[in-house]
Amino acid sequence: MRKKNSLKRWLAALALAAVGGLAWAQSYPSKPIQLVVAFAPGGTGDIVARMVAQKMGDSLGQPVVVENRPVPVAAVSMVAHARPDGYTLLMAGSGTALTSALFTKLPYDLMKDFIHVSTLATFDLALVTDRQSGFNSVADIIAFAKAHPGKLNIGTARTGSTQNLAAEMLKARAGIDVVIVPFKTTSDMVGAMRAKDVHAAIEMLPAIQGQISSKSVKALAVASSKRHPGLPEIPTLAESGMPGFEASSWNGIAVPAGTRPEVVKRLAQEIGKAIESPELQGKLLALGIAAKASTPEQMTQRMRSDIAKWRALIDKAGIPRQ
């Protein structure tokens, strides 16, 4: 009899917890939500964050406020240790994966301290050159590099960036001896190409799309698995003699570990609705950005895969861990 009563109490408690969780989820959100973006305002990632935040806020009935914290490790750590109540979100992605691959000690564990909710957008990388460079294909670049070891310069963003590591990947996969030159800004890099200080560059497509459209810069290939819908005539690096070559920058939204499953599910649904909006799709595609939501499981797998990929490349390229 005592066992039956214990079982009844346990079942009753379980039912109350389920009802309580459902009620809590139905009342969420009851106040503004903070979306922490670990870089300065104005860039393409920040534009995506603000567009998605606006759409989500309209649907949720509470504002989703973007807060820029351009000190990445501190920003990610702050969210990792925030209350897991669904009111503090993180813009995560390839940058946070790279940091986890590059740094030996961090005040958080990207795979243990977060639940990865959904991807937002992918920023394809392009191998570009000046319109008067004389290079018309990836094969031209590789042939020149092999004929002139150590003489070809490839511009990228800062050391350790996705663009920089993509150049290291190109160097390793093509078996060429080239000099990879990091720049602070895209305009500095384009200026160096025009001055013939660098022969080519790898940059995020949204940052270089204007120069490609104006034909001041030539796109030789994109580093994605498929051709970019905005530049269907430009081949991929895989099509250009490097099968399986894929490197892109991407972002998504994560929440602190311990966040209720029903809140994670609600956020994933709202992100999906925002991303699938034809209005948002059109605006982002015009900027060279491919937007696509995912399940939490898909984003988790992508993050895990990126960390492993970049860690292997960092070791192979001899880039010192920090």
Explain the overall architecture.
This protein has 322 residues and is α/β, with parallel strands linked by helices. It has two domains: 31-123 and 249-317, D-Maltodextrin-Binding Protein, domain 2 (3-Layer(aba) Sandwich), CATH 3.40.190; 124-222, Periplasmic binding protein-like II (D-Maltodextrin-Binding Protein, domain 2, 3-Layer(aba) Sandwich). The protein is 46% helix and 20% strand. It contains eleven helices and ten strands. It has helices spanning 2-27, 44-60, 72-80, 94-102, 138-147, 162-174, 186-194, 205-213, 261-275, 278-286, 296-317; strands spanning 33-37, 64-68, 88-93, 114-130, 152-156, 178-182, 200-204, 217-222, 248-256, 290-291. Strands 1, 2, 3, 4, 5, 6, 7, 8, 9 and 10 form a ten-stranded mixed beta sheet that branches. Strand 1, helix 2 and strand 2 (64-68) form a beta-alpha-beta unit. Helix 2 packs across helix 9, helix 4 crosses helix 11 (296-317) and helix 6 (162-174) packs across helix 11 (296-317). The longest helix has 26 residues, at 2-27. The N and C termini lie far apart (63 Å). 43% of the residues are buried. Pfam families: TctC (PF03401). InterPro entries: BUG (IPR005064), Bug_dom1 (IPR042100). Keywords: Signal. Residues 1-25 form the signal peptide. Belongs to the UPF0065 (bug) family.
Tags for this model:
single chain; 322 residues; alpha/beta; D-Maltodextrin-Binding Protein, domain 2; 11 helices
Q: What is the CATH first-level class name of the largest domain?
A: Alpha Beta
| pLDDT < 50 runs, ≥5 residues | none
Our count of helices gives 11
Helix content: 40-55%
* Biggest beta sheet summary: 10 strands, mixed
Relative strand content: 15-25%
The CATH architecture category of the largest domain equals 3-Layer(aba) Sandwich
Total tally of structural domains: 2
Average pLDDT taken over every residue: 89
Kindly report the CATH topology of the largest domain.
D-Maltodextrin-Binding Protein, domain 2
Shape: globular
Q: What's the SSE pattern? A: HEHEHEHEHEHEHEHEEHHEH
What's the assembly state of these chains? single chain
Derived structural class? alpha/beta
